TrEMBL record:
Pfam families: PfkB. GO terms for cellular component: cytosol. One of its GO terms (molecular function) is heptose 7-phosphate kinase activity. This is D-glycero-beta-D-manno-heptose-7-phosphate kinase. Transmembrane segments: none annotated. The keyword Flavoprotein does not apply. The gene is rfaE1. Residues 10-306 form the Carbohydrate kinase PfkB domain. InterPro entries: PfkB_dom (IPR011611), RfaE_dom_I (IPR011913), Ribokinase-like (IPR029056). Keywords: Kinase, Transferase.
Amino acid sequence: MDYKIDNDIKILVVGDLMLDHYIYGTCNRISPEAPVPVVEIIKETYTLGGAGNVLENLITFGCNADIIAVVGDDENASIVFDELASNNISWQGIIKDAGRCTIVKSRVMVTNHQLIRLDREVTVPLHNEKEEQVLRYLKQHIARYNIVLISDYNKGLLTPTLLNGILATCHEQNIQTVIDPKGHDFSKYKGANIIKPNKKEAVIASGINITNTESLTAACIKIQEITECDSVIITMSEDGIAMYSSGKLEIIPTKALDVIDVTGAGDTVLASLGIALASGNTLYNACNFANHAAAVVVNKVGSATATLTEVKQKFEDYSAITRKGQ
């Protein structure tokens, strides 16, 4: 195994926190009121989603992690606090905003298949007053962390002004930043150390259609020019992970043998990169670790997490398959 993990490190997640609400049921008939299926509910569950899923991945890895996020002043915020408490995670960095609602994604699941998703959200940019509150909290606590992971779901929290303040603060403290980006304009991430879009996001941000190694390299170079970052990492589903650093492109093939659900896989990659880099691994080994962790979670239903034991087993399984094929 080409990685080491230090569980004494402390990681900060900043980003769009949401609730993943799952409604599980059975469906055996069509409604007499309209041509739609009738789902008989069996159970409902809530888990932390978005940046919260990054946080849960870190906790599952055994890492010390905190989060800075904004929720509404509503009943769903109470569920967020309950979920944080159940994972022994501090809620001190959670800021309430009466002008927003807590983001909730409700998924109706029948026999492990998603029937429909219902979203409750407010995506207007965060008000200046709340930006200042977030940044003030960050500056008060930043020194205790080894790395900062920024999870942008384009829900209004990470405004250009706030991002600029976060990245400047981390730069002053010599703390590495890794960003999972969203949107068309990556210039707002200028000053980050690592940018981690998926393939679709990379195409949108760079304006380059990625079809081969040459266009992939060109897209990475363009993103690096826009953000002035040190490295670009592009997740490419079945094509693995591409890493562009020091003028060199490397592609790590996927380790996923079976894919059931890709929900939250990007969150797992961000968390995996964070803990691996903060533990002192090279960027290549961190990407390799993240690739194996992602292979674990895509074999589960929903926004899943991976344990270090599962990742280790994935390394061993893939190595055995590789040796058998030689």
